[in-house]
Every structure is written in C-alpha cells, then in structure tokens.
Amino acid sequence: MSQVNVYPPSAEFVERANVSGMEAYKALYKRAAEKPEEFWGELAKEKISWMEPFSHVFEWEPPFAKWFVGGKTNACFNCVDRHVLAGHGEKVALLFEGEPGDTRKVTYSELLADISRFANGLLKLGVKTGDRAIIYMPMIPEAVVAMLACARLGVTHSVVFGGFSSEALKARIQDLGAKLVITADGGWRRGKEIKLKPAVDEALNDCPTVESVVVCARTKGSVEMVHGRDHWWHAVEAGQSENCPAVPLDSEHPLFVLYTSGTTGKPKGILHTTAGYLLQAAMTMEWVFDLKADDIYWCTADIGWVTGHSYIVYGPMSRGATQIIYEGAPDTPGFDRWWKIVAHFKATVFYTSPTAIRALIRQGNQWPEAHDLSSLRLLGSVGEPINPAAWEWYYNVIGKGRCPIVDTWWQTETGTILIAPMPGAVPLKPGSGTLPMPGVMADVVDLDGNSVGANQEGYLIVRRPWPSMVRTIWGDPQRFQDQYWSRLPGNYFTGDAARRDEDGYFWVLGRVDDVLNVSGHRLSTMEVESALVRHPAVAEAAVVGKPHEITGQSVCCFVTLKKGDFDHEALGKELRQWVGHEIGAFARPEEIRFSDALPKTRSGKIMRRLLRELVTNNTVAGDVTTLEDLSVITKLAAQHDDEA
Ligand code: PRX
Question: Theoretical Cys-Cys bridge with 409: which of 83, 163, 229, 433, CB 3.0 to 4.6 Å?
Fold first, then answer.
C-alpha cells in the first residue's frame, strides 16, 4: 500500500464537537455494542416526540426487524411541530435559491402552515392514511412540503427523481399502486425549462390506480390539465385551514418507498418505516455532521435520491436545522455557482458527491478562489469512493485545510450513514470512510462469513439490524430475503467489497454485483440491457461499467443486432436516446459497441467479467477457460483497435 496521509481534527474543532476525541467515540460505540436496546431506547425517548410510548425497543424475526414496538409518533411532527412548540418557529428552515436567481426564506412556523394547508387540501381530494403517493418534482421548497404533508397524514411517499423518464415513472406508480401524484409544470436546469408534467401524463395512460394529480406552478410554462384528475397546487391549498393535526402512526408505519436498482431489470422498492429511520437520521446529523443550532447546512443532493430523504428532509429537519436548497445545475451560469451560494448564505456544512468534486476540479481553482468560503467548517462526501487526489483538493482548495471531510458510506437500504468519521474524534485518511457508527456491527468477511484479516479484501456485511434498516422490498419479501439475508443468514449483505486496515478503518472498494455507480447514482446492468433489447433492432445486449475520470464509471454496452442492414453510427445514437427514454437521461450509455456475438460460457451466460476487463484494459488476461468461443473476445478487442 502506498503511504496514507492522516489528518487528525484540530484542537479547535475537537473543543466544539458534539463528540470530542477518540475516547468519546469509543465509549459510544462500546455502549451501543454491549447494550443496544438501552442505547437506542434512551436516544429514542430523548430525540423523538412520542404520541404513545413504545413498549419495547426491538423485535427480530430474521430478516424482519421492528424497532420501538407499540410506539406512536409522526415524522412530520418531529421535523416541524416539535421545533415550533419548543419556541423556534421563527428559525429559518429553508434558504431556497432557484436557478434563475429567485430566493425564498421559509421559517419553521411558515413551513408548518404551508404543510398543514396542503395536507388539508389532500384530505379534501380524498387521500387517506395508508394511501401511496408519487412525488415527481424539481428541487423547490414545495417538494419538501409534499413529502412532509404525506408523512403528516401517514400517506407513504415515493419520490421519483425528475431525471427519470415517463416509462420509469410508470413502472414505479404501478408497483406502488399510487393513488396520488404530486408534480410540477417543470423546473429550471442549465437555463432551460425541464418539463415534468408531460411525462406524468404519458405515464398515467397505464396507471388506473391514480385518482388525482397535483401540479405545482414553478416555471409557469404551458401545461395540459385533465379535467377532474388534475389540480393546481395553489387551488388545492387555497382556503384551507392552517391547522391539520399530525396523525399518530405506528413506529413501523411505512414512511416511504424509494426505488433503487438491483441486479435484475426490475427496480426494487426499498421500504423505510417511521421511528427507527427518523432516530438514526437525527443521530447521524449530530454524530457525522456535528450539527449545531447556528449551522447553515447544505446538502447538494436531489430529493429523488436517498441522500435527499435522509440528509435534506428527515435528518436535518428532525434536528431543526437551517439549510440551503438550490434548484439547478452547479455550472449555471458559471462554474462558481455553488461557491457563490456558499458565500452568500455563509454555509457552514457542505455535503456533495465525488463526481461533482472531480467535475469542478477540472474547471480550475479560479472558480472557488473568487469567493469567500471562510464560513465553511465541515465538508462531506457521499455516493461512491472518493479518490485521494479529489479528497486533497476538496480539503485544501474548498476547506482551506481547516475543515474535516466526512466520507460517508451508506446505501438506500441502510437508510442512514453507517460508516463515517465523527469529525471531532476520528483522524481522517483520504479515501476511507473510517469507522462505523455506534450500533453498526460492520465486518469484512469471506464467503463463509469469517472475518478476513487486516488489509484483506472481502465482502462488507453488517452483523446486526440497525434502526434505519430497510424493512422489506415493497411487494416482494422473498426478494428481500434472497437479496440481503440469504448469503450469510442473519447478516446483512451490502453487495460492496471492502478491506479494513491495521487501524480498523474501512476502505470500500465498490460493488461485487452487476450494479454500476455512475456519478454516485446506482444503475443496474440488467436494467440497461432490458431497455436495449426492447429496441426492435437489438438481439442481445451486455452492459458493463467502464472506469471514468469524472463520473467514476460510465455505461458501456455491447450489442448484437437482428438480421438487417444497419448504419452503426446512426443506430448507436438512436440506442443512446432509447435508453434515455426507457430509463432517464442520466442512464444514457457513453458507448455502444456492435458485435457479431457476445462472449458466453458453455451454459450460455454472458461473461460480463471479460467485457469489463476488455473495456478497462482493452485486453483480456483473466480466466477464459469457460468461454464458449474464444475468438469472440479477440474480435471485440480488435474491433475497438480499428475504431480507435
Ligand atoms: O457501492 C456503495 C456506494 O454506493 C452504493 C449505494 O448506492 P445508493 O443506494 O444509490 O446510495 C447512494 C447514497 C448513499 C454503495 O453500495 N457508496 C455510497 N457511499 C459511498 C460508496 N462507496 C464508497 N464510499 C462511499 N462513501
């Protein structure tokens, strides 16, 4: 291993930190490991407002866990009312900046009024506790209001990222059996109006469960409204009372379902419930983001991903944070848009992805250097491994060597951060998520579940359930069992490879399955392959990830065609567009390679491993003993040389 730089926290940071010094971290970790029920039970009483107390902390019938059994609470109440009732109603909750430059400040009292009016409007539309709603919106305050209004009523929400196509939206609406869709005319991105409502209209041709669509007017662009089904947001909330009691909900009431890519063509609906999720989101805000009452916190994620759920809505708001929300692209109108926002609002905590950092590095230091970033005190990274060079740039150029970086490892399924440094306690090593959170029994093991030694690679698992753990896959408990709990019974299988160094620090190496990570977004190779073979010209497709300087990985597709005369260049373009239409623009392949055949084993399985090697090294050195036709690989490699 090459030399690793170690960055201990400064004395000044340690002094003000929520968890100060390594001994304090170790004490928390030990207590949670030895007495998990007491540990989580006490925190739940302190950090969550209960409408009815829980009778016991934990029930575990593998693979199904229940936390804070018998308790009743409400996530929206905890994110908003709790702070207003404590006298913090005048505190700013949201500092919004739209891409065109419009700004809004929303206090916790105003937010409570907005949510209550909107929730009353939803009740008038006939929405009830237990119903499901899809939220398909740009990054505007109404997206937060929509999520929290659903939570207030006990309507399970599923936010679909605005970059998903109507086909992807349709599949999610159908799987969830949603009754309500909350959307907008569109949003602003790179100076253009990105329309959302037409995709909803297209999807709803095949979604009989949807009774109502609520449309927020953001861009004021032209919109077609379907009489009786579609309602403007402002009309829904007009004249409604600002009093809408939060519904007392069981601790295990389904709060949200978020679809993510797995190893098959069909996305999985990851279910998170109420109290355990909320508690761990709140605790990681304190432990990892070291949140203080006067922080101006900014997470640049979109609410369409889990990061937006846990670290824009439920985590920060349950702790009464003031946070920035920005609608648009980081490069509009210039590459300093984010730094302008940091300087303008005096952001103190900033959380983004390695892909964004790498893209900004490429534009040069003059962009951040033109702004006063001295308000920042803590930086965060999420979604993919951060390479040490990007880490050092982030640390020196953005943080000016003063701000610890919390590299946070977690997943849609884990709900909240499981491995990350407590910044006032744990010395940092660039590229490592460092140590697990209290109550997280993470390990690196071989296929028999035995811990591997220091610096050995293995599978990253979690040995015991944690409060914000995925509860099931919506409508498919068997897949839940198979996917996460069957390889090493009783242990959660993350699908990531990792190693632990001599200090016990975790280094996450990437996925061990057919899941790609493009710009920190999860994409399944099977999902892209299924999209490709739905095109009439395509016979077979194999998709692999190719290392990419900025986005970590890019989508590379090998395609064989049905009989016919095809112009490869035109068809390549068409197939890229096609994947965009079937999944969403962010999934568009970077490369399509046509071939007469794909490398297969004798039993007919496509050998993606060889294709991965081919796109990475342009040769194949690995084991090809099971390959049916060796010449296929030679031809694919030669073809690439011809084209290059
Ligand atoms: O491979 C890991 C990678 O992202 C996967 C989870 O993706 P998703 O559910 O979309 O959630 C992304 C936001 C939490 C993981 O299995 N990953 C996430 N964070 C890191 C990471 N890999 C390395 N380091 C991280 N900090």
Answer: 433
> Angle formed by the axes of helices 568-582 and 525-533, to 10°?
120
Domain boundary among 231, 254, 277: 254
Which of 220, 254, 288 is the C-terminal boundary of a domain? 254
Pair of tokens at residue 182: 């909350």
- Whole-angstrom CA distances from 174 to 133, 179, 261, 309, 644 are 11, 10, 16, 22, 44
Query: In the chain, how many domains are there?
Result: 2
Q: Is the CB of 385 under 6 A from ligand 1?
A: yes
Distance 122 CA to ligand 1 centre (A): 35
Among residues 377, 391, 471, 483, the alpha carbon closest in space to that of 424 is found at 377
Assigned domain for 381 exists: no
If you ran DSSP here, which 8-state letter would residue 398 be given?
I
Among 283, 288, 274, 291, smallest CA distance to 43 is for 283
pLDDT at residue 263 in the model: 74
Q: Using one digit for the tens of pLDDT, what is the confidence trace for 43-74? A: 999 999 999 999 999 999 999 999 999 999 99
Q: Which residues contact 426 (CB under 8 A, 6 or more apart)?
A: 9, 22, 25, 434, 435
Q: Using a 6 Å cutoff on CB, does residue 318 contact ligand 1?
A: no
Confidence of residue 643 (pLDDT cuts 50, 70, 90): low
For residue 606, what is the DSSP state?
A: B
Using the atom order of ligand 1, give the atom closest to the CA of residue 521.
10
* DSSP SS3 for 576: helix
- 494 CA to middle of ligand 1, Å? 10
Q: Is 587 helix (H, G, I), strand (E, B) or coil?
A: helix
User: Of all protein residues, whose CA lies closest to atom 5 belonging to ligand 1?
Assistant: 411
* One-character DSSP codes across 453-499: -TT-EEEEEESS--TT---EETT-HHHHIIIIITTTTTSEEEEEEEE
Residue 263 inside a domain? The answer is no
Report which ligand 1 atom has the smallest distance to the Cα of 510: 1
Rounded CA-CA distance 64/492 in Å is 11
User: Phi and psi of 515, rounded to 5°?
Assistant: -110, 130
Q: For CA atoms 218, 221, 224, 225, give the dihedral sign.
A: positive
Query: Separation of 121 CA from ligand 1 center, angstroms?
Result: 37
Write the CATH number for 538.
3.30.300.30
Regarding pTM above 0.85, the answer is yes
CA 417 to ligand 1 center in whole angstroms? 10
pLDDT (tens digit per residue) in 271-312: 999 999 999 999 999 999 999 999 999 999 999 999 999 999
* CB of 509 shorter than 6 A to ligand 1: no
Eight-state DSSP code of residue 166 = H
For ligand 1, whether the C-beta of 522 sits within 6 Å is: yes
Q: Whose CA is nearest to atom 6 of ligand 1?
A: 411
